[in-house]
Specification:
With 281 residues, the chain is α/β, with parallel strands linked by helices. The protein has eleven helices and twelve strands. It is 36% helix and 17% strand. A hairpin with a 5-residue loop joins strand 1 and strand 2. The radius of gyration is 20 Å and the shape is globular.
């Protein structure tokens, strides 16, 4: 890492110089903590949230600074970071604005569709001098994406209800990253027209009427087999599947595995599937 003339533009339009060799990074985004570590930035990552859990053997030694929504600003500033990595959806604007008063570099991210990962890899690799590692991720991502595009031509369109919470039931709208991932295998997200990117479902049976599958995510709510049985009883016409929420919702380096996982879901779930637990660990 060193100062240079090339600038890298983040999702907020901020332009960043390449970081110095003594940079200190705090990541407030779990998937980006994993990306930074996969890029080889272990010695520079000095802070993370309690939800930053991958890779487990590395992050346990990195100080926590609260959650993604309830960041302890004092703890962040005590770490004397030169860079803080944030996300428009996951972190509160007021938190970012307060940190920006003191921290020299706030890197804002906002991947909206799976393809945005390519620019994300280039952004992080460029700022932190990990061009080769970022290029390797880009190559791996494009390979998996090309394989999915080829597979997609063989798949019929399927309507799915992707559940992320219970009591109340909650789902995702069409403009979310998750919906973008599912669309790569012709799985179209169904959701109530109540506004918002993560709508509350007032009537599960009515919302799920006519869907081919109900997908129960492993996060943020930890759905289990008892919930599979509950959904089968409420909507017997639909297949019900447990799915790995991290692989479907985490951008960053995990997205490469996420694309591969989508291919497995598509191959296993071409017909209605009431019996399969497709969660990967």
């Amino acid at each position: 890492m060193s100062e240079g003339t090339e600038l890298f533009t983040d999702a907020a339009g901020r332009r960043h110089h390449p970081a110095r060799n003594d940079c200190r990074i705090v990541s407030l985004v779990p998937s980006l903590t994993e990306l930074l570590l996969d890029l080889g930035l272990d010695e520079h990552l000095v802070g993370r949230t309690g939800f930053c859990i991958h890779p487990r053997d590395v992050v346990k030694a990195i100080p926590k600074v609260g959650g993604t929504k309830d960041v302890n600003i004092g703890k962040v500033l005590d770490l004397d970071p030169t860079h803080v990595v944030v996300n428009i959806d996951e972190n509160r604007r007021e938190t970012v604005e307060r940190l920006a008063e003191t921290v020299p570099n706030i890197i804002v991210t906002h991947p909206c569709v799976p393809e945005d990962n390519i620019d994300l890899y280039k952004l992080m690799g460029g700022i932190f001098g990990k061009h080769a590692e970022a290029s390797e991720l880009v190559t791996g991502f494009r390979k998996e994406l090309d394989a999915l595009h080829e597979l997609r031509g063989e798949l019929l369109q399927s309507h799915v209800l992707y559940l992320i919470w219970r009591s109340p039931w909650m789902t995702v709208s069409a403009d979310t990253y998750i919906a973008g991932m599912l669309s790569l295998i012709n799985w179209i997200t169904v959701y109530p027209e109540t506004g918002g990117r993560y709508p509350v479902i007032e009537d599960l049976e009515a919302t799920a009427a006519g869907v081919d599958r109900i997908l129960l995510s492993s996060e943020p709510y930890r759905f289990r087999e008892k919930h599979v049985r509950e959904c089968r009883e409420k909507v017997p016409s639909a297949g019900v599947m447990l799915v790995d929420g991290e692989l479907l919702s985490w951008y960053g380096s995990r997205a490469v595995r996420g694309l591969r996982y989508l291919g497995e879901l598509a191959r296993t779930g071409r017909g209605r599937s009431n019996e399969h637990d497709l969660t990967l660990h």
